[in-house]
Amino acid sequence: MSMAESAMPTIESGAPSGGDAPCGSGNVSGGDASGGDAASGGDTGSGGDVSGASGGDAGSGGDAGSGGDAASGGDAGSGDGADPKAAMPDGAFPAAAAPDEVGRSDAVASIAVSATLAANEALASKRRAGIPVLPLAFGEAGLPVHAALREALAAAAGRGGYGPVAGLTPLREAGAGYWQRRGLPTQLEQVVCGPGSKPLLFGLLMAIGGDVAVPKPSWVSYAAQATLMGAQPHFVPTPPGEGGIPDPYLLTKTVKAARAAGRRIRSVVVTLPDNPTGTIARQSTMRRLCMTAAELGLTIISDEIYRDLVHDLVNASAGDALATAAAAAAAAPSPATIAPDCTVVTTALSKSLALGGWRTGIARLPDGRHGVALRDRLLGIASEVWSTPPGPVQQAAAYAFNEPQVLTDRVSASRRLHSQMARAVAARFTSVGAQVPFPQAAFYLYPDFGPVREQLRLTHGVNTSADLSALLLDRYGIGVLPGSAFGDDSPALRLRVATGMLYGNTEHEREAALSASEPLALPWIASTLTRLDEVLEDLTLSGSSGRRMPRPG
Ligand SMILES: Cc1ncc(COP(=O)(O)O)c(C=O)c1O
Which ligand 1 atom is nearest residue 116's CA? Predict the structure, then answer.
């Protein structure tokens, strides 16, 4: 059922019917004893925590109809969401109003500006007012565009016409080669291009249909996108220390509870490596997740946008701190290598090559019949929403996905820089008593201020992650995101800290950071880290100290 590139696909009415389970356990490779662990809860520290599975979201739990949306639940303080800055003090960025409070169209209309983008706006306005800020909220790789990419884009500027819905053949070929080099043989027909991986993810959620299981915590947009399409996100806690993957045992519980309540979860999202925690799921957990998804007939959506920025493989057993992308792929395998018939993979150049503003991403559809059907539905949606990805950008992206040496060197240099910065910032949070999962990839940290909770409560009146992020912004000009924006439990004092914007204020500074052997010693970076030291020290000083820092501005 492969489709001519220019042909206009038809959208089947909605998603596959409930009985149309795309995946079965026969489609999962390496289904061994580790699969059995999933059913028993085995070695997952949280295995027995059934209520945790439904906590926050499904707490209303299996009760799909009633506010099963953690993203919009608990912390949805302001709810109007019209003005990101107004929402900021509460850290309240509801994905949408709860479906039982408003009709579907109202719920969709009330989607607020994405938490990360809103925090960025709030910091920008402080900066415009001359208040010193530390930008730790926005998940951007703040690095310059490589000269070779600028040239490739300029050379394609004359491509003004529309192109095929699925994307230009050179980009799809380059995407197939990219995955081939990471152990995933890929046919041209399996590759669909889009204007960023975010719209591709949305198109995939729509094409698959039904509710979606997402890790708790997870990137802000999965739950918001599910809500936008009138479905329900079901947050499933991740195993301790392994971000981006729903605990397989708790996933089973959640799916069954949802079914009993009349909801049908059809997909599960995995983020490999993870945003917000900067960690990587273990191979054994990924295998169990694949077995579980196959047993439940779920399509796995594997968001691998940070795949090439793995800088530590502690949990993945391959040792070398700055391993190549291929070694990283082998050590932390994509679920598509384990469950090829059930797994869609998305990636982009936004993070590895700092091209978020170019809006380019690619998806690899599953092998087999399910993949073909899903592709047809995705193309139908794409044809009605974005028609075709931007032509010149696709040409330049094709060059990038072919991975010439100049660009793999560039990705290696940024991986090294992200690693150094993430570790340095993690050490600072740790030194004031926060617990920080060791950063393994990208430029994210997920510190937990639980150990100093009492001190923060007594000194600053902080009780929730939203209180803490608001305090950091208002008092110290530091932008971070509360864990609650990622579906985490609001009382937990966890924050998402993004370190990718600390490399400098000018292109020149950022370029220098990339090529420096000791980037943290560069004066503008050293002073940023010193400022962070001062703030964190002040934040965690006990209330009786008279040495408190003055408020900025
Ligand atoms: C986990 C994750 N997936 C997807 C995206 C979307 O990236 P883009 O639409 O730029 O490809 C982001 C961006 O922050 C992300 O963090």
Answer: 14
